[in-house]
Amino acid sequence: MSLVVEAKGDQVASLQPVLPVQFPKGMSRARRGSISAESGCGTTTWKKTVIPKSPETIDRIKKSVQHCFLFAGLEAEQINDIVNAMAETKVQAGNTVISQNEPGDYFYVIDSGTFQVYKKDAQGDQQKVFVYEGSGSFGELALMYNCPRAATVQALTDGVLWRVDRETFRHIIIGHAAHKRKMFEQFLSNVPVLANLTASERAQVADCLRSESFAVGELIIKQDDAGSEFYLVESGEAVAMQKDPETEQEIEVGRMKVGDYFGERALLCHEPRAASVYAVGPTRCAVMDRASFERLLGECKHIMRRTMREYRTARDLLSPVASKTKRDVEAVQAGVKVFSFDVASSSSSSVSSSSASSSSSASSDQASR
Q1: Fewer CB within 10 A of the end CB, N or C, for the chain?
Q2: From the CA atom positions of the chain, what is the Rg in Å?
Q3: Both ends of the chain: CA-CA distance in Å?
């Protein structure tokens, strides 16, 4: 048994019982028949739900949501309100948790289990989009934009979900998300690879980003690690370094400035990180997780794949081929990290020596990462 606290401001109006949630096999349940327009953060009167949980359960839920982009930046009290409102939902293999084009009532956080995401193509056929393995969250888009579900999520194994209702979600999350969206939308409008997104699509991307700051020389991603996130440089500069296959010495293969991106190769190709990336100075990046990258960047991923064909590697830079000048080859062989060029933001790049103050133009090259 749990309690619903109906609150206006700091005043408690009434207490109402709420039964635990457990979906039957097949997970068939009635959903709202229509979607009405909502504004702001929901209704004037918000019912704060308190579902008693053990300290161990609360800690487990908080660990499950700590990497969720929606919770980044929330105050501790806001997170506690959401965790208190979450109801445990047990599912069995084969259950459909949410269905594409249906209204959305809940936001879900995965505690355990494996879940497949499907989207219908133009012909109406179900296409596999993503698999959640024991962690992650879904269902936020329908609640944030008051629109039908964008995809279907089905349990591949038995599992446990934590779900929070629409009103709680909108009251706590939407207000914070609106502020964050304003910060990111202006930045995203100047990112070349996202130029073909509509304003609505950019807004959805903005809602799925979180900011991370890095100190001078701090490692952002490491070569050969598994990749789970995509990065856009908001401020500062980052450098991509790749190991020489023979000496294991790191060679600079690219620089990313404001509006540039990195980390996409591991997500697109499902392979380890191809290079390490460090912060050159104090640097802030907008970060997107793999699930959001798969769901939202559609056409942008085709552009990224084309761009990847132009990436250069440490082996390329160490090979004295015609495309490099004699000075470049001698400098690399002497151990000087000379290659410094803009990536992903323009079709041409500049190459400069780390010991020189002037730069000379070079052909279009991009970092392997």
Answers
A1: N
A2: 24
A3: 51
Tokens (6 digits) for 231: 């990065």
If you ran DSSP here, which 8-state letter would residue 221 be given?
E
Higher pLDDT: 44 or 356? It is: 44
- Give the whole-angstrom CA distance, residue 38 versus residue 350: 50
Helix (H), strand (E), coil (C) string for 250-319:
EEEEEEECCCCEECHHHHHHCCCCCCEEEECCCEEEEEEEHHHHHHHCHHHHHHHHHHHCCEECHHHHHC
How many Cβ atoms sit within 10 Å of the Cβ of residue 17?
8
Q: Give the separation between CA 226 and CA 212, rounded to whole angstroms.
A: 19
- Distance (Å, whole) CA 340 – CA 328: 11
For 47-97, how does the pLDDT look when each residue is reduced to its tens digit (9 = 90+)?
Answer: 788 999 999 989 988 888 877 777 876 778 888 888 999 999 999 999 999
Buried b (16+ CB within 10 A) or exposed e, 95-104: bbbbbbeebb
Calculate helix-pair angle for 175-188, 199-207, nearest 10 degrees: 120
Q: Where are the alpha helices (DSSP H) in the chain?
A: 55-65, 76-85, 140-145, 166-169, 175-188, 199-207, 264-269, 290-296, 298-308, 314-318, 326-333
Question: How far is residue 128 CA from its own chain's centroid?
Answer: 19
Tell me the C-alpha distance between 267 and 285, whole Å.
17
User: Tokens 């193509």 belong to which residue?
Assistant: 121
Q: Which two tokens stand for residue 11?
A: 């005043």
pTM of the model as a whole: 0.46
- Structural domains in the chain, CATH included, are 2-175 (2.60.120.10), 189-367 (2.60.120.10)
